[in-house]
Amino acid sequence: MTRLTLTVAAALLLAGGPVLAQTPPGSDAALRQRGEAYHRAPDSEQIPAEVAATARLNAEIAANNAAAASLEAEALAEYERANARWREDSAGLEAREAQWEADRAAAEAAQARYERERAAWEAAVAACERTGQVCVTTPPVP
Question: Is-above-0.90 flag for pTM?
């Protein structure tokens, strides 16, 4: 029995789904489906104090919305400024890092050149000393 009930309920939901999907929430049709209806009273039946209060509330809501939009625009502008600063800082950091890498590579090349020159000098001194002569040479400058 439970299986039949579930099957029938599923079939009804599938059949009624397209109809329910065609009525946007908040529309008069959707309100009528829920048993609600909105009927604006004619101007002759409007209560002036209520109309004024509604207008005040609407103006307050509009002002609050405008203030919120202004705050959001200010926050977005501050975010964009901060993002621009970050990009500038990142670009500067990348440039400094590239310079550091170039300086490091130059220092390593200079160190390697010095070590080669030092090894060549030591080999020349050793060769000179093997001949029994007096060798006067200056070592390479680091």
Answer: no
User: Which CA distances in Å does 84 have to 70, 78, 87?
Assistant: 21, 10, 5
H-run or E-run covering 26: none
54 and 95 in a single domain? The answer is yes
Encoded tokens for 103: 């300086």
Q: Which residue has the tokens 């919305």?
A: 65
* CA–CA gap between residue 119 and residue 110 (Å, rounded): 14
Residue-level pLDDT at 8:
66
Q: What is the DSSP letter of 43?
A: G
Domain of residue 118, residue span: 47-130
Does 116 score more than 70 pLDDT?
A: yes
The separation between CA 91 and the C-alpha centre of its own chain, rounded to angstroms, equals 18
Q: Cα(129)–Cα(135) distance, rounded to whole angstroms?
A: 7
Least confident of 22-36, 60-74, 92-106: 22-36
Number of domains present in the structure of the chain: 2
Residue 68 lies in a domain: yes
Q: Is residue 142 part of a domain?
A: no
Residue 74 pLDDT > 80 = yes
Domain shared by 78 and 19, yes or no: no
